[in-house]
Amino acid sequence: MASVANDGTVKYGIVGVGMMGREHLINLYHLRSQNVGVVAIADPHVPSQQLAVELARSFGWPLEVFSGHQELLDSGLCDVVVVSSPNMTHYRILMDIINHPKPHHVLVEKPLCTTVADCKKVVDAARRRTDMLVQVGLEYRYMPPVAKLIEIVKGGAVGQVKMVAIREHRFPFLVKVDNWNRFNANTGGTLVEKCCHFFDLMKLFAGANPVRVMASGAIDVNHKDEVYDGKVPDIIDNAYVIVEFDNGSRGMLDLCMFAEGSKNEQEISVVGDIGKGEAFVPESIVRFGTRAAGRDGVQTLKAEDRRVKYDGLHHGSSYLEHLTFLSAVRAKGEKAPAVDLQDGLVSVAIGVAAQLSIEKGQFVTIQEVMDEYHG
Fold first, then answer.
1. What pLDDT sits at residue 7?
2. Residues 6+ apart with CB under 8 A from 309
3. Cα 68 to chain center, whole Å?
4. Which residues pair with 80 in a beta bridge?
5. What region holds the Gfo/Idh/MocA-like oxidoreductase N-terminal domain (predicted)?
6. Residue among 319, 280, 317 at smallest CA distance from 302
7. Considering only CA atoms, which of 16, 26, 131, 124 is closest in space to residue 375?
8. Torsion over CA: 367, 368, 370, 375 (sign)
């Protein structure tokens, strides 16, 4: 395995220090009692570099600054690399990390890559590197109300899961560096970029593999008056997606990105043959009840995780993701990453199938997406 320094300090490098890269920097600062430090960053965008350097300086962390990821890898400074660059750059960066002589553990932001073909190539290449851990940043699993709902469902309280409904009603996509996130070619499409989180949760709750997907969606409200280099954005802003799993359970996503007038951004409902559980974010409430006890027997819990030292942009989930990944790194191969490359691949495959279903106006099988897009 990639070894950490003799003093036990785990040294991190961050590739891509835009909004999410700087969020990782802050989370790692709040983990400093765990003997971690960020020692290097790589980003070709000078304003992002400067913001990260200023932030690190306020933490008392001097940073080596590189314009490219290859120089950061060649420096030999890092034990762990966090990849939080734009989606369309993940494939090249991951392949360069995997093929580098020095082993680096990797936490890569979602989506793993923008296409199924690229995800599969990364999965295949990483198999050869038993000295590296790669975790995918599907951190919604760690949001305290979602984690509590997972615990309830996996504990059998709702019985055999039959239906998973996830509603995300939120604000439009934020402005990113050079507006890279306004085009499907860069993001993989909204249902890959944004919704791989929810497809990952559906698979986790269902405890099964996806078989086929049907979706309806469009760009109806957002970004229509925006033009970049003569092109109007093509990312959809609302969709319904149905996912069928191989154990007969179903998932349904209701996405709306012009719904700022919502009390909760995410509402998750999991119904089994004997009961139902729900999670609400950011209210951080979990409800669950059984068919036998009926409405009067529904329990309401406030979900908290006292380990969280920084809530950040994702309600403490990024902090918990880092804590979990760090424990896998320190376990030196004894512990698998909590969210592995296969999870990353399947979450992208469902998103790609959903995008394709909208284009074709018909069901798309996961097999079709996996086969059609092989390298």
1. 58
2. 30, 31, 319
3. 23
4. 12, 105
5. 11-137
6. 280
7. 124
8. positive
pLDDT at 335: 81
pLDDT digits (tens, 9 = 90+) for 307-334: 999 999 889 999 999 999 999 999 987 7
Q: How far is Cα 108 from Cα 161, in angstroms, rounded to an integer?
A: 30
- What is the C-alpha to C-alpha distance for residues 91 and 374, in angstroms, rounded to an integer? 14
What is the DSSP code (8-state) at residue 262?
-
What is the rounded average pLDDT for all residues in the chain?
95
* Residue 183 φ then ψ, to 5°: -130, 135
Asked whether 164 and 247 are in contact (CB, 8 A), the reply is no
**How many Å apart are CA 375 and CA 41, to the nearest integer?**
31
Alpha-carbon distance 92 to 258, whole Å? 33
The DSSP bridge partners found for residue 278 are 269, 287
pLDDT of residue 6: 47
Q: Which of 184, 159, 165 is nearest to 173 (CA)?
A: 184
The pair of three-digit structure tokens given for residue 78, joined into one six-digit string = 């890092």
Closest of 369, 355, 334 to residue 130, by C-alpha = 334
Q: Is the peptide bond before 172 cis (omega within 30 degrees of 0)?
A: no
Q: What is the mean pLDDT of residues 234-238?
A: 95
No. of H helices and E strands in the chain?
12, 15
User: Is the predicted pLDDT of residue 286 greater than 90, yes or no?
Assistant: yes
Taking the C-alpha atoms of residue 368 and residue 375, their distance in angstroms, rounded to an integer, is 14
Strands 250-256 and 161-169: parallel
Residue 375 has pLDDT above 70, yes or no: no
Residue whose tokens read 């919502």: 262
Nearest CA to 105 out of 82, 132, 66 is that of 132
As given in the structure block, the two tokens for residue 288 are 């669950």
Query: Residue 312 in contact with residue 31, Cβ under 8 Å?
Result: no
